[in-house]
Amino acid sequence: MNTLSQKDKQYLLDSIREIEDFPKPGIKFKDITTLLGNDHAFNLLMDHLTLRYQNQEIDYIAGIESRGFIFGAALAARLKTRFVPIRKPGKLPYTTISEKYSLEYGVDEVAIHIDAFSMEGNPKPKVLLIDDLIATGGTATAAVNLINKAGAQCVEACFIINLTFLQGDLDIKKTTCVYSVLEVD
Ligand code: AMP
Question: What pLDDT, in 10s, does the model give residues 13-65?
Fold first, then answer.
């Protein structure tokens, strides 16, 4: 399994801009658009993820709206595999199934097309879930449950950044393996 050097990790971390008090006071928002706009950083990251997953026979990559679409679709193209979007409710045009999850106040929901993982000759395809960041872990845990409900098996959930002080990865680990490229505390 390939690993990134500390120098490379620091380079990637430095390529991500932090915005204080966005979208609300107290949140330090990790803005990955600066990583995407840096060709060296984006390719360093994609090379690393390609090496990690290229021999794992991943049938689908499922990306969480919206930043998970960017990394997920880029990785699917690198691995020559399939991409499935996991979206907020009401966005997907065909029949969907969905999964609700709790927020600090209220509930949210993720949805997927009912036939997203209908792969000929493979009743239980292997899915890699990808998103940019783990905060509380609620979105990703719901997405893993949704993938499994849709008849596939989520073999790993991959993130660019894990905000370790929130310990959101502990919840996700109850449902699948977790890999995060960068850890921030
Ligand atoms: P959670 O369900 O709490 O783990 O939240 C994860 C989702 O919210 C991901 O899709 C992230 O893109 C977004 N998110 C939460 N906190 C942040 C943050 N501090 N910076 C950037 N994105 C965040």
Answer: 999 999 999 999 999 999 999 999 999 999 999 999 999 999 999 999 999 99
CB of 156 within 6 A of ligand 1: the answer is no
Q: Give 119 Cα–ligand 1 centroid separation in angstroms.
A: 30
* 122 CA from centroid of ligand 1 (Å): 33
18 catalytic? Reply is: no
**Once rounded to an integer, what is the mean pLDDT over residues 73-81?**
98
Are 107 and 138 spatial neighbours (Cβ–Cβ below 8 Å)? no
Report whether CATH 1.25.10.10 matches the domain 57-184.
Answer: no
| Residue ranges covered by each domain of the chain | 57-184
pTM over 0.90: yes
Catalytic residue among 67, 87, 99, 156: 67
CA distances from 97 to 31, 59, 125, 143, 155 (A): 30, 20, 17, 11, 20
